[in-house]
Fold:
Amino acid sequence: MDKGEGSKSQTETAVTGVPPLEEPPLESIQRRRFLGASASLASAALVPALSPGLALGAERVSAGQQWDQQTDLLVVGTGAAGSCAALFGRRAGASVLLIEKAGYYGGTTQKSQGAYWIPNNALMRERGLEDPRDDALRYMARLSFPQLYQADHPTLGLDEADFNLIATFYDHAARVVDDLAAAGVLRSTFFRGLDGTDFPDYYAHLPENRAPIGRILLPLDEQNRPGMGAELIRQLHTGVVDAGVQVKLSCRAERLLLDELGEVSAMPYCKNRKRGGFRQRRVYSQSTNAAQFSARPGLRWLHRSGRRG
Ligand SMILES: Cc1cc2nc3c(=O)[nH]c(=O)nc-3n(C[C@H](O)[C@H](O)[C@H](O)COP(=O)(O)OP(=O)(O)OC[C@H]3O[C@@H](n4cnc5c(N)ncnc54)[C@H](O)[C@@H]3O)c2cc1C
Structure:
């Protein structure tokens, strides 16, 4: 197969036949539907993990609090995770404000290789590469939780939440990438070496790994060449802007405010040293990687200096 072949039908779908993102009336927002989409997109944004939430303090909203802006959904961070959250929020009909503390769009994602690990993805299926669910879950459980993994345990030795997380990732990650392709936002291709051979999974040799090649995808650029993180961000940013997401750069989320039900309802911010506040129905926050690394010297010491132990 040549380099562009794997992505061909996905690419073609992306540019034909799929209507642009629409803006349904606010009343039609279905909270459950939106939250479901947010959860699955977070799992599909670059390889790992659902965000544990923004590492910010939370306080009660004070009476008489003034707001600069109201929105249905406030998304924090313009990396792959935040961009996808914003996009799917718009698709669910929400008004979305996406804020970024840096003066540029894209976060660490922009500097990364830009490879996304998507089990049982459409390109694999088109190529006849199988990725059975049971084995994929075992592979993810063994690699993510090596100290807990038990092959014969009903949840593979993991607690139920962690097991459900990896199962959700298997069940939805490919669908999210398909949706982004169908909406004309993101074109994907296989990760291949310079000689054109498929890049294998890092642990391709493990018996649980029934799909040693095909899960690692890269964005496909306008010349149909595999791109990196900058290309991934270029496509997601275009999609975000086209979808009508409002983006504010140099805008740091500082604190969460909770309403009387204890739900997050507002997030004060600071933009160019001017303080203000947003009020929204839902917050999607992203702080899995660099966001926490930049704020925590201990994490940098542990994971970036080769002294992991
Ligand atoms: C050289 C390199 C190569 C990599 N290659 C890969 C790879 O190929 N595949 C892979 O899966 N991973 C790779 N990674 C890791 C990858 O960068 C992360 O997995 C990915 O970027 C995480 O995306 P994200 O959206 O969660 O975070 P980011 O892209 O870091 O986005 C988070 C954003 O949130 C913003 N932010 C944080 N706090 C606030 C706040 N309070 N208010 C406003 N904004 C805030 C940050 O400024 C940032 O822009 C690589 C990393 C590096 C450094």
